[in-house]
């Protein structure tokens, strides 16, 4: 499974989720120390397509601020869109903060940018 953060219309690094036995369930998401999150994962020839899908979805639903799109990729390289999450987790260990941290935006900066965006939107 892969996840992409879009923040104010900008695409941030992909995170590849590697759960034991490929089973990213509730237990592996919240309690397992064996689940790996690979921020900045390079999908090679599929990179541009999956980023475009995420951005098009964000724009299509009229999203603003932060959203996260989840995808799966088949062994044959087919991309499957799973969902757009317009209220993604925002704890220090959630996927959105991990993605932005991989490009030097720490959790505090992220929260301040979200608040600034909300204030400007009013």
Description:
- It is built from four helices and six strands.
- The protein has 122 residues and is an alpha+beta fold.
- Strands 1, 2, 3, 4, 5 and 6 form a six-stranded antiparallel sheet that branches.
- The longest helix has 15 residues, at 107-121.
- The radius of gyration is 14 Å and the shape is globular.
Write the SSE topology:
Elements (H helix, E strand, L loop, with lengths): L1 E6 L2 E2 L3 E4 L7 H5 L5 E4 L7 H14 L5 E8 L5 E7 L9 H7 L5 H15 L1
Antiparallel strand pairs: 1-2, 1-3, 1-5, 3-4, 5-6
Proportion of beta-strand residues: 25-35%
CATH architecture: 2-Layer Sandwich
SSE ordering: EEEHEHEEHH
How can the largest sheet be summarized? 6 strands, antiparallel
Please report the first level of CATH classification, the CATH class. Alpha Beta
Q: How many discrete structural domains?
A: 1
Helix/strand class: alpha+beta
The portion of residues assigned to helices is 25-40%
The overall strand count is: 6
The gyration radius over C-alpha positions equals 14 Å
C-alpha end-to-end distance: 36 Å
- The rough form would be described as globular
Contiguous runs where pLDDT drops below 50 for at least 5 residues: none
CATH topology: D-amino Acid Aminotransferase, Chain A, domain 1
Question: Roughly what is the average pLDDT, rounded to an integer?
Answer: 91
């Amino acid at each position: 499974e892969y996840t992409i953060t879009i923040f104010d219309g900008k695409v941030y690094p992909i995170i590849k989720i590697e759960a034991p036995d490929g089973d990213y369930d509730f237990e592996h998401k919240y309690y397992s120390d064996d689940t790996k999150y690979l921020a900045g994962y390079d999908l090679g020839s599929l990179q541009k397509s999956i980023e475009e899908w995420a951005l098009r979805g964000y724009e299509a639903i009229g999203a603003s601020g932060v959203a996260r799109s989840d995808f799966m990729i088949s062994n044959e390289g087919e991309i499957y869109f799973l969902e757009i999450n317009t209220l993604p987790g925002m704890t220090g260990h959630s996927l959105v903060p991990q993605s932005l941290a991989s490009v030097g935006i720490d959790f505090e900066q992220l929260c301040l940018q979200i608040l600034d965006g909300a204030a400007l939107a009013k």
